[in-house]
Amino acid sequence: MVEIPLTIRLILAALFGLVFGSLVTALSYRQPRGLSIAKGRSLCPYCVHTLAASDLVPVFSWVLNKGLCRYCGANISWRYPAIEITTATLCVIGMALSTTPEKMWVLLAITPAIMTLAVIDIEHKYLPNGLVLILALLAGAMRWVSDGEVLAGLALASGVVILGLLVDAGYRACMVSEGLGLGNVKLMAVGALALPLEVFIFFLALTTLLSIFFVVVYKCMRPNYEFYFCSTILASFWFCLVAEGFIKTSFVVAFID
Question: Does 114 fall in a domain?
Answer without folding.
Answer: no
